[in-house]
């Protein structure tokens, strides 16, 4: 239970101090309104349970204790069930109690004894604990399965997106290649047409010159 004790200390502070504070407050007939003391109560109630059957995360500690209360695995102390408001005198005493208080051996032993008796009565049946462990394990497995399915679906979606992207890139490359080939063909045809036109014009001019020369020769011979 050392890990649970450390977790409670991490969240609520020094539990031993609030335990001594409770003993002194009870001896004075006052009620201490303190969340850390509630955590100390929960710690001493859980202390008698099998540590291997209790898996607690720091962030889930409060919800875990609340679940234990709802399922009847633990019960609060009587003075926690019948809570009394603090009057001004009790509040003054509570402020005074915050200073370091020496341990009271008799009260410590009585508190341990009372807590031990309550804890033994509140221990769950083995079958109940086994059933809870099985249910917890089943929920954990289902959560892991759901997480695995989600990861699988995510990677499958990513693979499909990559495949579609690849197809689009291939289509784009083919389209660019086709466009370049068409432009090249068009330029070649245009160049060929211009060459043919030039040759045609050259031939036409040559024929015209030949015709002119022949006519000139005929006129000269007639004269």
Topology:
Layout: H1 2-12, H2 15-27, H3 35-46, H4 61-70, H5 78-81, H6 88-97, H7 105-122, H8 126-222
Helix pairs in contact: 1-3, 2-3
Structural summary, described in words:
Residues 125-135 have a biased composition (Polar residues). Residues 176-185, 195-214 have a biased composition (Basic and acidic residues). This is Ubiquitin-like protease family profile domain-containing protein. This protein has 223 residues and is mainly alpha-helical. The protein has a domain at 2-124. It is 78% helix and 0% strand. The radius of gyration is 48 Å and the shape is rod-shaped. The termini are far apart. The model is unreliable at 32-36, 49-58, 77-108 and 118-126 (pLDDT under 50).
Please tag this protein with its features.
single chain, 223 residues, mainly alpha, 78% helix
User: What is the string of helix and strand elements?
Assistant: HHHHHHHH
Shape: rod-shaped
Give the integer mean of the pLDDT values.
64
**What are the low-pLDDT stretches, counting only 5+ consecutive residues below 50?**
32-36, 49-58, 77-108, 118-126
Task: State the end-to-end CA separation.
Answer: 141 Å
Portion of residues in helices? Answer: over 70%
- Please count the beta strands (DSSP E, at least 2 residues each): 0
Look at the helices and sheets and give the structural class. Answer: mainly alpha
CA gyration radius, whole angstroms: 48 Å
Biased composition (Basic and acidic residues): 176-185, 195-214
Protein name: Ubiquitin-like protease family profile domain-containing protein
Biased composition (Polar residues): 125-135
Region (Disordered): 115-135, 176-223
């Amino acid at each position: 239970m050392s890990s649970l004790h450390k977790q409670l200390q991490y969240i609520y502070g020094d539990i031993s101090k609030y335990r001594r504070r409770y003993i002194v407050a009870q001896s004075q007939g006052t009620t201490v309104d303190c969340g850390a003391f509630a955590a100390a109560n929960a710690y001493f109630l859980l202390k008698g349970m099998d540590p291997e059957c209790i898996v607690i995360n720091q962030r889930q500690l409060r919800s875990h204790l609340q679940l234990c209360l709802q399922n009847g695995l633990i019960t609060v102390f009587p003075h926690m069930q019948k809570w009394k408001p603090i009057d001004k005198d009790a509040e003054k005493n509570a402020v005074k109690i915050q200073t370091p208080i020496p341990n009271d051996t008799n009260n410590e032993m009585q508190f341990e004894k009372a807590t031990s008796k309550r804890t033994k009565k509140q221990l769950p049946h083995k079958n109940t604990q086994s059933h809870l462990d099985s249910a917890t394990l089943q929920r954990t497995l289902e959560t892991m399965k759901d997480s695995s399915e989600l990861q699988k679906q995510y990677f499958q979606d990513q693979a499909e997106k990559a495949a579609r992207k690849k197809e689009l890139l291939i289509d784009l490359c083919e389209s660019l290649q086709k466009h370049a080939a068409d432009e090249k063909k068009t330029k070649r045809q245009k160049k060929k047409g211009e060459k043919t036109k030039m040759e045609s014009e050259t031939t036409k001019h040559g024929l015209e010159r030949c015709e002119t020369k022949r006519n000139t020769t005929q006129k000269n011979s007639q004269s």
